[in-house]
Queue: 2 jobs
Job 1
Amino acid sequence: MKKFLIVFLIPLMLIKFNTFDSILIKKEKNLNLNQNDNIINLDLGGDDSGAIIDIDSDKNADTLYMWGDNQYGQIGDNSTEDKYVPTEITPEGQNDWGGKIIDLDSGGNDNGVTIDTDLDGYADTLYIWGNNFSGQIGDNSTIDKYVPTKITPQGQSDWGGNIINLNLGYYHSGVEIDTDLDGYADTLYMWGSNYYGQIGDNSEEDKYVPTKITPQNQSDWGGNIVDLSLGEYHSGITVDENLDGYADTLYMWGDNSDGQIGDNSTEDKYVPTEITPEGKNDWGGNIIDLSLGYYHSGVTIDTDLDGYADILYMWGRNNYGQIGDNSTEEKIIPIEIKPVEQDDWAGSIIDLNLGKYHSEWCYCWYWFGWIC
């Protein structure tokens, strides 16, 4: 969901981008946007930036530009020299990506894209490059990669389905795969740092190749995977168990030192653990959005089943008040958050985004039409 929201938010930011266009982009030979070129997505990593562009005006991205810090080769131009202007990136020895760029995601110091090579509208190929200290690239090594490197599960030539979502954490990575080609993800692969159990395979050993993850003692997730989010050292996923198109179940695992898992403890979780508000068997509605910060977590819930979230839950580290409950005490269970002196949000919660030590969300209300 968040990926689509980013795409839709881009037009709202065009004034900003047009300024960027006139000041920087059109003055630099590295990136020349024509009037009909479209910016499809922008993603900002730790100290680097990237944008995917639709050059041929078919509403699908086909070109990638990267710039910024390049200490670990995260720009992807086969060097470690910082890039001060947008630089076009392609796989080594290729003039293009061999298909449409579906998704761009940035981790701490690594980047990745998914590519639709058979032009069916779904990604089938994954490239990652940059920092590989904990095996987060997934190529069965810990050597940094200075060029986009094609990644598949070990011993496989492909992912066995379509890549629905890519998420790069700071030191670990994950993808959701649709193996039965119904348009919904059903399989999760994770790899990289596992010191706190954030991979979810019931161990603390780093994983250098994509590793299939399911809840403990289950062969699958019991429904469609809707959303994957990675914090610094913890992970979370939402699942649609009743197959109505909306998530209803939340699993969390990994670092729990500040209660960011939400299971009323501070013990790390090495396997996906189902989370609900204290004293409840479910969330009282559909889970619309999941976001993990470095050490805190949040979800938005649609309780009146109109397709829009109306309730926000937050939990985890709160030393800067990032939970939003007018305190600095950590919260080890999900607690409902509301604006000060209000009973509710007076509208629909559209998006939730958690930073390192802060949180932000936007909401809309209805007044002779939706106002955001």
Job 2
Amino acid sequence: MPSPTTLIPGLQGLIPAIPALPDAASITQKAEAAVPALSYLPDDFLANLMATGVNITIALTIMVVGWLAAQWLSHRAVSSLGRIGETAASFIASTMRFVVITVAFVVAIIQLGVPAQTLVTIMGAMVVALGLGLKDTLTNVAAGIMLLVNRPFDVGDYVEIDNLAGTVKRINLFQTELNTYKNIRIFMPNQKVWDNAVQNFSHNRQRMVEVTVGLDYSHKPSVCREAIAAAITKHPAVLADPAPFIGLVELADSAVNFTVRVWVKTPDWSQVRYGLLDYIKDECEARGLSIPFPQRVVRMVKEGGSDKAAPKGKPAKTTAKAKRLAKPSTQRSNVQTEG
């Protein structure tokens, strides 16, 4: 059997169009010419690549550890500083979390090979730029510090700020969170909280409840006061000191109106505000006192200004003017109100 070295020249002689096959040396030279960079790779390229990968891994690890440490420290701060107030503890925890994450980010950047001096210069320029572009955000931080120092409210207080009412749930560096009685969460910037008047319904230990009670004109005011006072004493949440107030404030169209003011502990305000009228109504009905409803007496005026009834069997003539006068009028001269 002929060898390849003798076969190839024979084939080339039979088919002259077949070019000579290249050898291994020529193939290598052509490959180096096509990819010249392969011949110029440094000897420590692989070592540098591995070192860069290690630095990136360490930097990511620092960020993850910093994030977890920030969360852990914030929870520890809330539990440890609870004795100084939940508001201050929440604010300090938020500040600690922000500082720890910032430090972890700086250390991770340095680990990637950025010089510390260069990083400080860059961060200084960023602070100036952020101070100009995010002045409102920095204002919220300053307002949050002022809220922490002055403490117009604490976490858990029921407040009203700029016509928005709710229970304070959290105060952090940038915003205050309220929860309404409909279970709707409101996020309010600290600057808006600081610039507006704050009504704190939970600040004082006692609050006043005021209701209006209307009774019939046929009852003596003294009897009405006795019935209302008896109903007040039956409510368990009403305080005896300060003493309740019962005053006749208006002789209305259909009733004699009394204003009732009682004092309760702040947590009991809603219970008394929406339950005291039940006690008053039951006590008044038990004593035979009626609570009137609005009613009007309309006097029909005939033609000629006389309101005398027509003769029996002879109905009075109805003219256009009489029809006009017979319509119910709201004028005082034609309407009498009786209790």
